[in-house]
Amino acid sequence: MSARPDVVIVIPGDDPAQIQGSPHLERLRQYGDVRLHTDRPATFDEKIARARDAVCLVNTRGAIKWPREALAALPRLRMATVCGIGTDAFDLVAARERGIVVCNIPGKTAPIVAEHAFGLMLAAAKRAHFQTAELKAGRWTRMDNVYLHGKTLGVVGTGAIGGAMARLGRAIGMDGVAWTFSPTPARAAELDVRYVPLDELLGTADVVSVHVRLTPESRGLLGAREIGLMKPGAILVNTARGPIVDTDALVAALHTGRLAGAALDVFDAEPLPAGHPLLTCKQVVLTPHNADQTPEGMDLLNAGVVDNVIAFLEGRPQNVVV
């Protein structure tokens, strides 16, 4: 088929590289004028200038935000897709009001993200970052590791990723408890976990692993009160979104030694700026929001966003969030 010149498909800032160079991008060129920008827009005006003619928007990087005022400046926009599960880069209320379809890619990379979360948990429990830094500094430091077999893994959010994390924990002999916004007996049986109130989970879990989407309801879900309820010596893992956890409260709990460690792939500010309080904490393992960034994960996500755009343009929208 020949590309429609009136259909403009914009990728506004593919940095770090996600879809550029992907063979899936060639499939998209059959459907319209694909405009790929390989650097991030430096200003609001530059972002709008890049996307002004877009009918479809492929947001490969969640750091590029589309609040109400940005969407209002895109008169031709009819569809947008994120390159993952979270849609917090978009003002969904404004999108709905303007008739913009917003899609995501649910579940495809869940095993990859869960494996990353599992690896972060192990690294924090075995003091991997701390001991590496000590050895590089010429010190042979004695500190107990955390033995996870027989300990309790508390999974906050039991969608595809949280479910996969629960299974991985069970594979090394961890007991599973869970909390989610909409628990069901069937899901509890499927994952072999016991649903409990959030406060109970926080007070009993040796590891708390966060897997809920960022929504108005989940923003600040683990605040100072909730972190204060966590079991002394527990580990917090977060591969969901940074603003779900109160950073200041977490830093304070780490500095006092009340928590044994934290393993984070997401932050309240991304990229993580120099001088961020988390960088002063010794017992942390940090990765730059790259839990799904494996060759397999990249290919799945690139295929997913292209499939979403094609499905919309063919009149059969899929993975619609709004």
What are its keywords?
alpha/beta, Rossmann fold, 2 domains, seven-stranded parallel sheet, 12 strands, globular
Summarize the structure.
The protein is α/β, with parallel strands linked by helices and 322 residues long. The protein contains twelve helices and twelve strands. It is 34% helix and 14% strand.
List the helices and strands and how they pair.
Elements: E1 8-11, H1 23-28, E2 33-36, H2 44-51, E3 56-59, H3 68-72, E4 79-82, H4 92-98, E5 101-103, H5 110-125, H6 128-136, E6 152-156, H7 160-171, E7 175-179, H8 185-191, E8 194-195, H9 198-204, E9 207-210, H10 224-229, E10 235-238, H11 247-255, E11 261-264, E12 284-286, H12 295-313
Parallel strand pairs: 1-2, 1-3, 3-4, 4-5, 6-7, 6-9, 7-8, 9-10, 10-11, 11-12
Give a verbal description of the structure.
This protein folds into two domains: 8-108 and 295-313, 3-Layer(aba) Sandwich (Rossmann fold); 110-286, 3-Layer(aba) Sandwich (Rossmann fold), CATH 3.40.50.720. It is 34% helix and 14% strand. It has twelve helices and twelve strands. Helix 10 (224-229) links the parallel strand 9 and strand 10. Helix 5 (110-125) packs across helix 7. The longest helix is centred in the last third of the chain and has 19 residues, at 295-313. The relative contact order is 0.14.
